[in-house]
Design a protein that fits this description.
mainly beta; 6 strands; 0% helix
Length: 112
């Protein structure tokens, strides 16, 4: 689903927050594509728009957005029990250290 917002938005499906952000750089509009993990039967979708600095707030919901799922398998990593292996996942050269990635459905699967 495509969401266009102005100042900020929260998207909740069946009580779980899928996306939430504001507009710290006061862009004219922000566009997000959010994969909806629908369950069988009735689902409850809540889209809450915020208006803080604009005289007119931009908002739209596009149910025809392309929802491509990307994945990348990484090679094996040798680890030792009891050791700590920190890693980071972040934007390259963000506008601010507080800029979010905007990848609401991103996740990492770790398998044995």
């Amino acid at each position: 689903m495509g969401i266009t917002s102005g100042d900020g938005v929260t998207v909740t499906l069946n009580g779980k927050v899928l996306a939430e952000h504001n507009n710290p750089f006061k862009e004219k509009q922000l566009k997000d594509v959010i994969l909806l993990p629908l369950k069988k039967g009735i689902n409850q979708l809540i889209v809450k728009y915020y208006n803080g600095f604009k005289k007119v707030n931009v908002m739209s919901i596009d149910t025809n957005s392309d929802q491509t799922v990307y994945s990348q398998k990484l090679g094996p990593l040798n680890v030792e029990k009891g050791r700590y292996y920190p890693f980071s996942w972040q934007l390259h050269n963000p506008l601010s250290p507080h800029t979010t990635m905007g990848l609401f459905n991103a996740h990492i699967n770790i398998a044995n």
